[in-house]
Design a protein that fits this description.
The protein has 462 residues and is α/β, with parallel strands linked by helices. It has 15 helices and 15 strands. The structure holds zinc ion.
Length: 462
């Protein structure tokens, strides 16, 4: 497989550190809120990469962290009158709900920053001992960017240019405006942990260095994240990790492109900030997954109602082919053209793999699946042997599963609840809205909510 390595700025043949194994780390969410569609893109893209490696026979260790301590966490917890830990617990659960619905498999490990404070302190201490970092009188510890000659290599910037644009916050006690905090001394009302520099908490960049190396080792295969993380986050991770160990950190750096909404940047002021939870009210989230994969991950992607609607139609096409294979008419004897069709099945797999091997080109891979769907529809338009149908279904399903687009078992509901839902549908059909509302209330009493969407009514546990 060839992947575009941000570090070398070219597509490179991927050769894992250990044969048959892939170690990868992706920067995860700060768990202070529901995540939005911009966050969803890397979750879906790198989940697909992980699925692809598994399908190609690799044993994958995939780590994605939860940032559960930072300024945003502290502010939100204070607003809600709960502890930072409670806030983190809550939004980690909410993350899993949305990620599951997007078909994002659980990572091998989802470490929380607050569970790795010892690793973080040890790493900061090493950097201080080696002269790459210094404690300030206020209890902060800073990384000195001038002390490590490789600084800027990922983003291709030099320190002098960066310094010219740097803003200095007078509350920070840095020696140089580009230096960044590894450890932050405690301010009143903030959660804190004991350290050699007094009570405090980790900076954001150090947590990813500490957690990735603690779980994957000092050098590992792939580090991934959104393009916006290249500088300063990933640049700083490299500076911390490589200065501390003297060894190369991640060997391949992968970054996904931006997401726009109606051709504009997503921003609070434009009020075009959609959380995945919002979208789930209207669409099956597999539609969002297909939408994200319809563009190669490094290209920008534009989110709009029209494009999501197109993705919904596209998903329907892929699923219909699966349904037709499931219900295909069976024949005892093979028709004349059957063997030729079966011989051609491996061709779809080859083309699919070629697309994915070319820097995870999911757009082309989806194109192959649409061709496959069309051919399968035609194939089962007349009776086929059971063996031929099964073989086709297996080949098609395998590729659909790599993209995470196979239908998943939905939550199961008690029969009583399903019956009520059906009665409500009937009432609505008869325009008996009073009765429909009554049933809605009845369901609520049983602990279930109904969400009406374009695909029909969906039940949710309250
Ligand atoms: Zn990170």
């Amino acid at each position: 497989m060839y992947i575009y390595n941000t570090m070398t700025r070219k597509k490179e043949l991927f050769v894992p550190q250990r044969e048959g194994q892939v170690s990868m780390y992706a920067c995860g969410p700060t768990v202070y809120n529901f995540f939005h569609i911009g966050n969803a893109r890397p979750f879906i893209v790198f989940d697909t990469l992980r699925r692809y490696y598994e399908y190609r026979g690799y044993q994958v260790t995939f780590v994605q962290n939860f940032t559960d301590i930072d300024d945003k966490m502290i502010r939100r917890a204070n607003e809600e009158g709960i502890t930072v830990k409670e806030l983190g617990d809550r939004f980690i659960q909410e993350y899993y709900k949305d990620a599951d619905a997007l078909g994002v498999k659980r990572a091998t490990v989802n470490p929380r920053a607050t569970e790795h404070i010892d690793d973080i302190i040890r790493l900061v201490q090493t950097l201080v001992d080696k002269g790459y970092a210094y404690p300030a009188p206020n209890g902060d510890v800073y990384y000195s960017v001038h002390s490590w000659p490789g600084y800027g290599k990922l983003s291709g910037q030099n320190i002098e240019d960066l310094e010219n644009g740097a803003r200095v916050d007078p509350s920070e006690q840095k020696r140089d405006p580009m230096d960044f905090a590894l450890w932050k001394g405690q301010k009143p009302g903030e959660p804190a942990w004991p350290s050699p520099w007094g009570m405090g908490r980790p900076g954001w960049h150090i947590e990813c260095s500490a957690m990735s190396m603690a779980i994957l080792g000092t050098s590992f295969d792939i580090h991934a994240g959104g393009q916006d993380l290249i500088f300063p986050h990933h640049e700083n991770e490299i500076a911390q990790s490589e200065a501390a160990t003297g060894l190369p950190f991640a060997r391949y750096w992968m970054h996904n492109g931006f997401i726009n909404v109606d051709n504009q940047k997503m921003s609070k002021s434009l009020n075009n900030f959609f959380t995945v939870r919002d979208i789930a009210k209207e669409y099956d989230l597999d539609v969002v997954r297909l939408f994200m994969l319809s563009v190669q991950y490094r290209n920008p992607i534009n989110f709009s109602r029209a494009l999501i609607q197109q993705a919904a139609v596209a998903l329907q096409r892929l699923r219909t082919a699966l349904d037709r294979l499931q219900e295909a008419p069976v024949s005892e004897t093979a028709a004349e053209d059957e063997q030729a069709f079966l011989d051609g099945l491996s061709g779809y797999k080859t083309r699919f793999n070629e697309a994915m091997d070319d820097d995870l080109n999911t757009a082309d891979a989806l194109g192959v699946l649409f061709d496959f769907a069309r051919a399968a529809n035609t194939f089962v338009s007349e009776p086929r042997t059971k063996a031929a149908i099964e073989q086709t279904k297996a080949a098609y399903g395998e590729l659909l599963e790599v993209l995470g687009l196979m239908p998943r078992k939905k939550e199961e509901f008690p029969q009583e609840v399903l019956d009520l839902l059906e009665q409500r549908q009937a009432a609505r059909k008869n325009k008996d809205y009073a009765r429909a509302d009554e049933i809605r209330e009845q369901l609520k009493g049983l602990g279930y909510a109904i969400e009406d969407s374009r695909q029909g009514a969906k039940l949710k546990k309250l």
